[in-house]
Amino acid sequence: MSLTPDRPVADAVTGHWVDRHAPEAVRPYLRLARIERPIGWWLLLLPCWWSAALAAIAAGQPGPSLWHLALFLIGAVAMRGAGSTYNDIADRDLDARVERTRLRPLPSGRIRVRHALIFLVLQALVGLAVLLQFNRTAILVGLASLAPVAIYPFMKRVMPVPQVVLGLAFAWGALMGWVALLGRLDAPAYWLYAGTIAWVIGYDTIYAVQDIEDDEIAGIKSSARFFGAWVRLAVAGCFLACVLCIGLALSGAGAGPIGLSGLALFAGHLAWQVWRLDPRDGAEALRLFRSNRDTGLILFCGLTLDAIWQGLM
């Protein structure tokens, strides 16, 4: 094993319990699953919650299913960990060449590849157990999400904007909440999925601003490199497409003024991110990227309150 000092990776939450209290033998596995970087599972979870709330509006139910929300939470943490483990196995050589990622458990040598593979399987089994709690159609839709997850780590070697494939994977929850409740996929779910893909491309472009120089050296492709001096305009375009598509989803599902107000606040937060983005400031880019948890919660609260109001009325 490596003698690399046991330090948190660059974008971990400062003072997280994993780095302060977790046993040393377990800590590398928790880091491999990104437990000390909770923004990842939040961003995987929120589209599921949006979709569950939007489906409740369409079905006339007074709020999304609490059981479904809990299952999505467990599944998001497990599958984000599995996806991160798989990504790090595929990217271990590239990660060793990038300053921000070279201290990750695999490139630093703290975990062997075969142990990471076992850990990957265990996390995937938790995700499968969650998925099997839903109806048959939802199970099939959930299994289909494995396709973009499987190919994403290799796209950054060949695609100028690999965030498109990341969007296909991370936005999948926008379909899951709808199909879990209604047992089918309808136009609002597809519009929500399209809007969420645009959101993912936008926020991950902000995230990629941190690594532009290292990515050029390592030969890693990213949307931040591709858009270059036009990165702010590109992020603005992604966020505009996101709001328009989600607006169509809300309209198709029968959302009322409360849901539309939530969308307006969501759009305002995205506009604030564009205004604050400075391609030369990696630290601010990380803060803006993390703020998308709050952006997503704003929309979820709006949709949930709308469902409750319409369901009770």
Word description of this protein:
The protein has helices at 17-20, 27-32, 39-59, 66-95, 113-131, 136-144, 146-155, 163-170, 173-182, 187-208, 212-218, 223-227, 231-253, 257-276, 282-290, 292-312. It has a single domain, classed as UbiA prenyltransferase (Tetracycline Repressor, domain 2, Orthogonal Bundle). The chain contains 16 helices and no strands. The protein starts with 16 loop residues before the first helix and ends with a helix. α10 runs antiparallel to α15 (282-290) and α14 (257-276) packs antiparallel against α16 (292-312). By secondary structure, it is mainly alpha-helical.
Briefly note the CATH topology name: Tetracycline Repressor, domain 2
Secondary structural class: mainly alpha
Fraction of residues in H or I helices: over 70%
- In CATH, what is the class? Mainly Alpha
Average pLDDT reading: 90
Taken as a percent bin, the fraction of beta residues is: under 5%
Features:
313 residues; mainly alpha; Tetracycline Repressor, domain 2; 72% helix; 0% strand; cell inner membrane
Topology (SSEs and partners):
Blueprint: H1 17-20, H2 27-32, H3 39-59, H4 66-95, H5 113-131, H6 136-144, H7 146-155, H8 163-170, H9 173-182, H10 187-208, H11 212-218, H12 223-227, H13 231-253, H14 257-276, H15 282-290, H16 292-312
Helix pairs in contact: 3-4, 3-9, 3-10, 3-13, 3-16, 4-5, 4-7, 6-9, 7-8, 8-10, 9-10, 10-13, 10-15, 13-14, 14-16
